[in-house]
């Protein structure tokens, strides 16, 4: 359990650090005179880096100690954040986002794989549930702290939000040191992956029909969840609220999520996984439609939208457990494939959603609710064929 707790701590630290710049990003991009569509393209470029990097990091897990690849990924992410924060022109910033995604994919691929490998079959549901809660809480706390950092722009008369990126990079350096100190003594991380790195992509051709359907369902759900995560930030700011207000809201929903992951979702996971997964997608869709069809926005976002948060939080460990049960693949391979499809969803979601948001913000939310309903249908047909 000591190993598991160490990984939980690192996941928390990682989630806080990776999200420090998120609450100021919509305002930062607006300062540069860029549109909401370009905001989506920036995030999509990062997601493309995740798509390309995920299978490679999944393969590399068996080649050397995982902490070395997590450190390498962190270094790549640092350079990506530096470029995004300081280049100031579109093409270099898009390329910086791509490299940030390439680096981040090492961490989001390796961490769940290590936890699954370190847990018994009976412990996996609880461990994945806790991991989901830790990531959401850490992300929320990162948002809140990033929102507090936004105050220094006014109080210290800074011209831009670039200082937030410098703070984030300093903390990332501390994170790299923690990876070295905590993980290097742990020598029994092996995923037994024997294929070449090119075979990490060829593995996709070995998927059965029901598995392909499930991964497409995951991709559609990720498209919607990613759009909601990123463009709720934009919508929040467009409604006249500050980055600090956004950070506080995300912190509150994060506290609600951690409560759910500890006390509610482990109970949910005792039920039929197929029904649970499909129900979570449908409830997510309904919550989006209700939240953005009525007013006042601030009341609905603190009430009805919490059902979306709970359903989304339930979906993540359920889909991870479903994928980990697929036969014919190692855990590292499955997590690499999973992250590949998640990356595609993260790439397509903000591009398509950003375009739709510029045309009509309300329609863009309805469209993403529809994606979740289609995702639930694909998941149903996939798991019925299993």
Outline the structure in words.
The chain is mainly α and 386 residues long. It has one domain (2-186, 206-385): Growth Hormone, Chain: A, CATH 1.20.1250.20. 80% of the residues lie in helices and 0% in strands. The protein has helices at 2-18, 25-31, 36-60, 66-86, 90-117, 124-149, 151-155, 162-183, 199-202, 209-238, 243-268, 273-291, 297-301, 305-324, 331-359, 361-385. The longest helix has 30 residues, at 209-238. It starts with a helix and ends with a helix.
Strand and helix layout:
Elements (H helix, E strand, L loop, with lengths): L1 H17 L6 H7 L4 H25 L5 H21 L3 H28 L6 H26 L1 H5 L6 H22 L15 H4 L6 H30 L4 H26 L4 H19 L5 H5 L3 H20 L6 H29 L1 H25 L1
Q: Determine the fraction of residues in helical runs and give it as a percent range.
A: over 70%
Provide the succession of SSEs: HHHHHHHHHHHHHHHH
CATH superfamily: MFS general substrate transporter like domains
The rounded distance between the terminal residues' Cα atoms is 33 Å
How many H/I helices? 16
Q: Characterize the main sheet.
A: none
Provide key terms for this protein.
386 residues, mainly alpha, Growth Hormone, Chain: A, 80% helix, 0% strand, globular
Summarize the structure.
The chain is 80% helix and 0% strand.
């Amino acid at each position: 359990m000591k190993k598991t707790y160490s990984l939980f701590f690192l996941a928390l630290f990682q989630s806080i650090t990776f999200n420090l710049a998120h609450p100021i990003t919509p305002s930062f991009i607006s300062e540069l005179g860029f549109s909401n569509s370009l905001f989506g393209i920036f995030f999509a470029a990062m997601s493309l880096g995740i798509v390309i990097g995920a299978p490679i990091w999944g393969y590399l897990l068996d080649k050397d100690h995982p902490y070395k690849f997590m450190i390498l990924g962190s270094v790549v992410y640092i350079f990506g954040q530096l470029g995004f924060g300081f280049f100031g022109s579109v093409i270099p910033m898009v390329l910086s986002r791509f490299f940030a995604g390439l680096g981040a994919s090492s961490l989001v691929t390796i961490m769940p794989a290590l936890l699954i490998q370190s847990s018994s079959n009976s412990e996996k549901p609880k461990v994945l549930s806790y991991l989901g809660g830790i990531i959401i809480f850490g992300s929320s706390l990162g948002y809140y702290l990033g929102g507090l950092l936004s105050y220094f722009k006014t109080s210290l008369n800074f011209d831009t939000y670039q200082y937030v990126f410098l703070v984030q990079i300093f903390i990332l350096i501390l994170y790299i040191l923690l990876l070295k100190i905590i993980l290097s003594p742990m020598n029994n991380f092996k995923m037994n992956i024997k294929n070449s790195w090119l075979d990490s992509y060829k593995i996709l051709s070995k998927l059965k029909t029901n598995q392909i359907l499930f991964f497409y369902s995951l991709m559609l759900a990720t498209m919607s969840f990613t759009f909601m995560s990123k463009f709720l930030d934009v919508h929040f700011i467009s409604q006249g609220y500050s980055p600090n207000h956004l950070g506080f809201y995300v912190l509150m929903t994060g506290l609600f999520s951690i409560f759910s992951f500890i006390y509610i979702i482990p109970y949910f996971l005792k039920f039929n996984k197929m029904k649970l997964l499909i129900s979570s997608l449908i409830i997510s869709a309904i919550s989006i439609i209700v939240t953005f069809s009525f007013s006042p926005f601030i009341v609905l976002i603190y009430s009805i939208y919490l059902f979306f948060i709970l359903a989304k939080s339930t979906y993540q460990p359920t889909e991870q457990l479903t994928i980990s049960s697929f036969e014919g693949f190692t855990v590292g391979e499955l997590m690499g494939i999973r992250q590949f499809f998640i990356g595609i969803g993260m790439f397509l979601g903000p591009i398509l959603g950003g375009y739709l948001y510029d045309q009509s913000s309300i329609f863009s939310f309805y469209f993403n609710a529809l994606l979740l309903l289609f995702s639930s249908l694909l998941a149903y047909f996939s798991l019925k064929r299993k």
